[in-house]
Amino acid sequence: MINSILVVDDSKMSRKLIIRSMPEEWDVPIYQAANGIEALEIFHEKKPDVVFLDLTMPELDGFGVLEALQKENNKVPVIVISADVQTQAYERAITLGAKAFIQKPLSGDDVKKVVQELRLL
Questions:
Q1: What is the rounded CA–CA span in Å between residue 17 and residue 6?
Q2: Residues whose CB falls within 8 Å of the CB of residue 68, separated by 6 or more in sequence, listed in order
Q3: Helix (H, G, I), strand (E, B) or coil at 53
Q4: Which residues of 55-89 are buried (b: 16+ CB within 10 A; e: fewer)?
Q5: Given this model, what pLDDT does residue 107 score?
Q6: Is domain 5-117 annotated with CATH 3.40.50.2300?
């Protein structure tokens, strides 16, 4: 069961779009971070059940967040949402523990499909 969500993206508009794409069944608190440092602080304080993570951000990028979570042996599902569609970025994100990769620009159906595939509903 999902009790809270963390959405990490340096673009406020992208965060809003991701949040609007969430399944209606997820009537839970949604925390937001604009960079990886904020994301890790919120992650440790709020302990969300799923993370939606952009890769390209200032201060600490999404790869840095994934690396930090991997070092902690954290099993919270991370869904990467990024415009970086290079094979290297996809492979690195998955190797670092991301459970799914959604390409920007995203549609509401993209998020719902991944959520269903990961059985997060």
A1: 14
A2: 36, 40
A3: strand
A4: bebeebbbbbbbbbbeeeeeeebbbbbbebeeeeb
A5: 79
A6: yes
Structure tokens at 120: 């997060």
Strand order from edge to edge, sheet including 78-82: 30-33, 5-8, 50-53, 78-82, 100-103
φ, ψ dihedrals at 91, nearest 5°? -65, -40
Identify the three-state secondary structure at position 3: coil
Largest alpha-carbon pair distance within the chain? Answer: 35
Per-residue pLDDT of 49-71, as tens digits, reads 999 999 999 999 999 999 999 99
Rounded to two decimals, the pTM is 0.95
Q: In Å, what is the CA distance from 4 to each residue of 46, 47, 52, 59, 92?
A: 8, 8, 12, 24, 26
**End-to-end Cα distance, the chain:** 7
- 35 Rama sector, left if φ>0, alpha if ψ -120 to 50, beta otherwise: beta
Backbone dihedral angles phi then psi of residue 11, each to the nearest 5 degrees: -95, 120
